[in-house]
Structures are given as structure tokens and as C-alpha cells.
User: What shape does this take?
Amino acid sequence: MLSIGKTGWIEKEKPVCGSLDAICRPIVLAPCTSDVHTVWAGAIGERQNMILGHEAVVEVVEPVKDFKPGDRVIVPAITPDWGALESQAGYLMHSGGMLCGWKFSNFKDGVFAEYFHVNHADANLAHLPENVKPENAVMLCDMVVTGFHGVELADVKFGDSVCVIGIGPVGLMAVAGANKRGASYIYEVGSRPNCVEAAKYYGETDIINYKNGDIVEQVLEKTKNKGVDRVIIAGGDVNTFEQAIKMLKPGGAVGNVNYLGEGEYIKIPRIEWVLVWDIKQSMQVSLQEEDSRWKRWLHS
Assistant: This one.
């Protein structure tokens, strides 16, 4: 990323390895729509001369305790500082500050380079088993685990009805995760034929096609106006939260793993929000308050 709306090639010095870190060389890389949002929508603000990418299977070049040169490893998209107060409180994405667990192609050079740096390597790398192909394993860096994380945020339980909004790779993995968690009904919002077939394979029970009308009305019709227990947002925009909340039962939960690339505010309906008591979102809007509590406790 040369600047907002502009990409190109750049030469940089090889990164330096610290005592807890590793230098890695990519074997297989995958682009992500997050890179598109970052560059073309300017979603996180101006970034200049920053190397993109956060999904890679790599070979270790300079090792630390648990790794040696030549080891094939998976590098996750999120690489927390594990000693940070936020990490200890369970907010790995925000270790050291809001979104600071997401380093690659946020404020640190990413993986689309000949060599790149990984902090806290013993905790942030995973050995790749010999029988797993790198081109398959690269999906574990972000896509699979992000979909599963949406399921965790929504706290899907046995017998729950679930609606997954978004039928891309993350949405499909949210379907798979909800299925593994024991959801009884899984409604998937999308229209692409190949993705619809994939959703059926992973456990979807009904497709909600937004081209056929309002998705809230379709979900309420299928649930006899009761709504669903859980909603996982894996696509859409700042207006999608309104749809998610309106299709949700009182006492339900929303898990958001969508990268909101544009818009100043999230649209949330007042009445339905009041009626829904437990909303869980990956944005962790209370993190700063949590951080303040930690600091007050330490000073006391």
C-alpha cells in the first residue's frame, strides 16, 4: 500500500529479529478482502509504504525457542503481545490498544514480502504437520478461525437457530462452526450458486436470498415470527446490524466478524436494541473501560 487507493512494489531492508521473535519466508500466501478495504476504502486511515497481507504459511529463517530454520509453520493473522493487560483479560485482538493485536498490514509490514517479522514467535506460530499441504493450511491463518470466532462470539449452543449473514469464506466457516456447535437450524444469507452449494455441504439448512426480498422478513417467516437465537455477521455494511438485531429473539446474541470498511457510525434500531438484552460483538466496545479497570486495580 503506497497510500489510500494506490498500490505498487517497494524495496525495504530485511527486518531485524529480536530475542522473542522470528524472521520468516513465505511459502504460500492468500489475499484477503481486508486488504481491499484497507487500501481502496481507507478503512483504517492513511497508510504509506506499508506491505500488505496477513495470511501465510512460511518457512522459519531466524528461530526462537520452539522453532528452527527450515521449519514450516502457520502464521495467524492476529499476533498479540501476550504479556499485555488486554491479552490477559481475554482481548487478544486489542493487546496494547484498540486493534493492536492485528499488526500485519495495519501498522506493521505484512506478509507479502520476501522476509517478514513475527513478534512473540513461540506463541504466535504453529508447526505445520507433514501431511497437511501449505495451500490448504493457509486457510487456517484467518478464514476458518474467523468464522469459528463468530460462532464463539454469538455463543451458539445445542439446538440454537442461527442466521449467518454473508456467504464468503468466513461466512461459510461460520456455518461449519455453528453446525459443529450443534445448531438445529442454520440460515445462510447469500445468492452465489457455488457458495450456496458449499453452505449446504457445511451444514446450512435454509438459504436466505437477499434478491428475493428483505432478509429480516424472510427469516421471520421461516421462524414463524419468533426470530433466531444467534446471528453471525460475516458480510454487509454498517446497516447490516439493524437487520441482524431485527431478526433476533429477545435474549439472543450477535457475533460480528465483518470488517466494516466504510461509514462513520453503525446503524442500530432503538426499540429492538432495548428488547434484546445480551448483544455480543467482536468490536469489544467496552475494552477501554476494561483497560481502565485493570489500571485502577494495579495502582490500588
In short: Strands lie at 22-29, 56-62, 72-75, 116-118, 126-127, 161-165, 185-189, 206-208, 228-233, 248-256. The CA atoms of residues 73 and 128 lie 5 Å apart. Residues 287-299 form the longest helix (13 residues).
